[in-house]
Amino acid sequence: MKKIVLLFSSLLIISCVSNEPKPIKLNVDSCEFCKMTISNGKFGAELLTKKGRYYKFDDLSCMMHYTKENTNVQVQSFFVNDYAKDNTLIPAEQCFYLHGGSINSPMRGNFAAFASDKDQDDFQKQLNAKMLTWEQVFTMY
User: Fold this and answer.
1) How much is the pTM?
2) Is residue 12 scored above 80 in pLDDT?
3) Burial, 11: exposed, middle or buried (Cβ in 10 Å; 0-12, 13-18, 19+)?
4) Alpha-carbon Rg of the chain, whole angstroms?
5) Residue 86: CB atoms within 10 Å
6) How far apart, in whole angstroms, are the C-alpha atoms of residue 120 and residue 97?
7) Rounded distance, CA 50 to CA 129, Å?
C-alpha cells in the first residue's frame, strides 16, 4: 500500500512541476487579451503562471499588454512561436527577435521570434526589420 501511495504522490508532484508549453490549437484557442481566435502559427504566444495555469495569445504584443495590465498574475514562463517553424512554441527569454519592417502580425505588434540567431539574421534581411533582445521587447510595453 505504501508503494502505491508513494507512486501516486510522485506522479502528482511531477505533473505539477511541468515547465513545458501547451500546443496552441489554431482556429480553436482564443487570445486571453483581445479574445480573437488564434489563427496564425507564426505569431502566437503563451504564458505559464506559477500556479500552473496557461494563457494563450494571438500576438506577442497581446501577451505583453496582458502581463503589464495583470500584475497580480505571477508568471513562471513566457513562450512564443518560432516564426521559422509554424506553431512551435519556444522559451521567450532564449529567442532572437525582429520588429517592424514588413512583419505583419495579427494585432500589429509586428514581432517575429526565432530559436536561432542564424534564422533571425536570414529573416532580418528578407523582412527589413530591426533586431531586438527579449529584454528590449519586454521593456517596450
Assistant:
1) 0.86
2) no
3) exposed
4) 17
5) 12
6) 7
7) 34
For 60, the grid coordinates are 506577442
Residues near 84 by Cβ (< 8 Å), separated by ≥ 6? 114, 115, 116, 119, 123
pLDDT digits (tens, 9 = 90+) for 33-92: 999 999 999 999 999 999 999 999 999 999 999 999 999 999 999 999 999 999 999 999
**Dihedral pair phi/psi, residue 62, rounded to 5°:** -65, -40
Cα separation, 54 vs 56, whole angstroms: 7
The CB-side HSE value for 20 (13 A sphere, CA atoms) comes to 7
Query: How buried is residue 110: exposed, middle or buried, by Cβ count under 10 Å (0-12/13-18/19+)?
Result: buried
- Determine the Cα–Cα distance for residues 49 and 55; give it in Å rounded to an integer: 8
